[in-house]
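note to self — DONT lose this again. spent like an hour looking for the file last time. sequence + predicted structure for the chain T wanted, 208 res
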Amino acid sequence: MSEYIKLKLDVFDEPTQNISALRNLSIVELKGEILRKFQDLSHSDGDSYGLFLLGSHRPLEDKKSLQELNIQNGDSLTFGWVTGAASKRNGGKQLLPVGCTGKIVVQENKTTTVVGWQPFIIGRKTAGGKKNELIGIDCTGLTNDRRVSRNHAQILFADGAYYLVSLEERNPTYVNGKKLKVNEKIRLNHEDRIEVSTGRIQLIFVEK
C-alpha cells in the first residue's frame, strides 16, 4: 500500500486541485499546507477554516490523520469556513457553512463577492473611513454612493436560503423593482436584482 493518498481538493472558488498527501498526515497539518500554498488566505484565521468531505457540513477532526479518518484514494475534500467560527473575533460575523454558493455582483464594476457570513451588510464606510467588519458590499466610490447609508441592507441565511432585509426607511432598497419596507425580509432567488437607495446602485444576487 502506498504511503500517499490521491485526493481532489476544492479551495473556495479556486479550480479543483489534484493532490497527493501522506496517509499519516493530520488534518491540521494539511490545512497548514493549504494556507502556505494559497497566500491570499488569512493565516491568522486558521481556526476559522475546516476540511470537509464533499457533501458534508461536518469538519474533519484536526488532530486525526487521513488514515484514521478512513480517507480513501479519489475522495474529494473541500476547504472552507467552519460555520459560526470566529464570530466574536470578527465583529459578530457568523460564517456560513461550506458549500454555500450565494454571491453578489456589482453591476457598475462587475466585481463579485461571495456571501460568506451573516449578517452580510450592504453599505459604506464610516465618515472616518473605517470599514465595518460586517460589510460585504462597500458602495464607497460607486456612482451616487452618498445616497447609500452606512448600514443600508443586510443579507441573512437560514434553512438553506438567503434573505435580504432593508435597514433604512429614508434610503430605500428594491428587489426586482419592488420597494422594501424597513426591516422587511424577502427571500433572494438566483439573478434577483437589488437596487440600493434613490441612486439605484444595482447589484445582482447569483446562486449556482
